[in-house]
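Hello,

I think I submitted the S-adenosylmethionine job twice by accident. Can you confirm which output corresponds to this input? Input:
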Amino acid sequence: MDHEEAGRFWNDNADAWTKLARAGYDIYRDYLNTPAFLGMLPAVDGLLGLDIGCGEGHNTRLLARRGARMTAIDIAEVFIAQARQVEEREPLNIDYRVASAVDLPFANAAFDFATGFMSLMDVPETNRVLTEAWRVLKPGGFLQFSITHPCFDTPHRRNLRDANGKTYAIEVGDYFRNLDGEVTEWLFKAAPPHVKQGLRKFKTPRFTRTFSQWLNLLIDTGFLLERIEEPRPDDETVRACPGMQDAQVVAYFLHIRVRKPK
Ligand SMILES: C[S@@+](CC[C@H](N)C(=O)[O-])C[C@H]1O[C@@H](n2cnc3c(N)ncnc32)[C@H](O)[C@@H]1O
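Support: Only one job matched these inputs. Its output is below.
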């Protein structure tokens, strides 16, 4: 499967995704990934930033509120339309464009930094995404992105639970098999049944890479590794969102920052 075909799946997901995320059901984003990502982010005040795979724009808006001058792209036109609607209501000077991460419509060295919140792993042509991010970054600029953790979001994965339903281990397998567009169907598990009723399930194509493949692609592109985090929810967060307890057992997510040398 190529990026255009994968993008059509995302466009079809976009309305239900936006509705559920804006209603607060993307709990891993809101209570774990985004706070950890922003905690790791260098100061962006006054910098020119590009958000790759921005979805409905939630995280792009947070970057703009930190003072970054943001451009954001997504392959799904429905997501970009949703993001633009918010921009019209509450302007933050964000320039949203429909574009693919593998073919960025920007000049070389146009941005001080680039971000990808849980998006780079959804593009099959991983090396082209990284080469494009490199190309549009100024020398000395950084790319920070989050992905599902390659070691624990494996083609085979199963939660092992105790008698109380608490996850005590995650069974992983098939780690070395690079999935190439296998489609999984799901909705945010935090959304109650009456909210999910009538919504078409997301269909997301998966493209898995091993940990070493990710790191070697970054190294081969020419990036310097700067920071890595494996965020996990604290006990207070799990008390508020018990469904996130499993993310305390293994790292569900991987956050990486790399820099284009000067
Ligand atoms: C898991 S969602 C994350 C959205 C958003 N960054 C967030 O954190 O809420 C993945 C996003 O990547 C986008 N995407 C997938 N393939 C893409 C591509 N080739 N170019 C740009 N965006 C892409 C999808 O449309 C979707 O918006």
